[in-house]
Amino acid sequence: MLLPMVVLGQDKKEDDNKVLVHLVFVKFKENVSVEKFKDIAYEYLVPIPGVHDFQFSENVSPEGYERGFLHAFSMSFKTQEDRDKGYLPHPKHIEFGAKYWNEYVADWMVYDYWKEAPTLKENPYELVWADEFDKDGLPDPDKWFLETFAPENGSWYNNELQHYTDRIDNATVSEGTLKIIAKKELFESSGSTKEFTSARFNSKLHFTYGKVEVRAKLPRTQGTWPAIWALGTNLPEVGWPVCGEIDIMEQLFENHLMVQSALHVGGRYGDDPALKQLTVTDVTENFHVYGMVWTEQKIDFTVDGEVFFTYQPEDRSNDFWPFYKDQYLLLNVAVGGSLGGAVDPNFTQDQMEVDYVRVYQKK
Predict the structure, then answer these.
(1) Which of 94, 101, 114, 213 is a plausible cystine mate for 18, CB 3.0–4.6 Å?
(2) Could you confirm whether 81 is annotated as catalytic?
(3) Regions of the chain with pLDDT less than 50
């Protein structure tokens, strides 16, 4: 559906020296995360062709403030046609309205006007790969490989306690999200029997540099170890950690109110990775967007669009910066092990729920 519009003012005069500003005043519902809404809006609306200078503001103009609106976001268009025939009917705009608008917004109004054209800011990134998990059933085999063979003599590394499977019991898409489900059950695979099962996703996308964002809600049960991460595609040739590992998000058993990002490279790995931890108090109750921005110079790690950790080593040798070659993404929930810890004896099953995975690269 299109977002309803109440237009308070609109000078329809068009000339080459002006841009059309589309200003949306917003009243948010109680107990919603305004920051999360900003992140969602940015991800959906900024990539739409014709959108420029997208920004949020809490300095609402008198027209909005008099009516009780405390927030607003705006964008610019070079022509009215860019707005009317490009932005408004665009599928991403419609999807944004259908999925999120009524969840977050109590009331709104729109104020359109022309102003002298500033230097318009183009979004430097464009979407190159995504899974929105909008088809029920098993995950898309064109996008993911579910790794099941246990490489460590019938077990997984880090003393993990599960087998990974490619069954719908452990990996399923429903109601617009992916569920990676860890379960307590005896399961035989790779010549051994384990007490737990789960799933491990490897993306078929291989890429160098870009922005990754994954919107996810994490499991709560003690002993689960969810992770969103990446490995170098040259792993079979050079081994780990020389290939480079980027942990966009992992949650440790010590504290379910905390997540961390880390990197393992030839010069720092295992018990001595480069890492930073961040307190996020509701990671098991609500979705958050976990991301990284990977460039030739550095890797920034983000939660809900805010950078909290940057890896930019002075030593640019392969021992500390192997990140100039292709990586692939991984999603998994391990059970137990060196970072999962002791498993709750009453555990039966828990899950990481993923709303989307998106990869952007510079235009």
Answers:
(1) 114
(2) no
(3) 1-13, 120
